[in-house]
Amino acid sequence: METLIPIASALPTAATWVYGLTLYPGLNRGLSWRKPLKLLAKHRALIGVIANLLAIAHTLQTLYLYPASLEMHSGIACLGAISLLGLTSGKKLQTRLGKSWRLVHSITYLIPLLLLWHISEKMQIWSGFTMITVILLVVITVLQGVRSWQKVQQRISKGNLRHLSKLDCMNPKD
Question: What is the value of pTM for the model shown?
Answer without folding.
Answer: 0.72
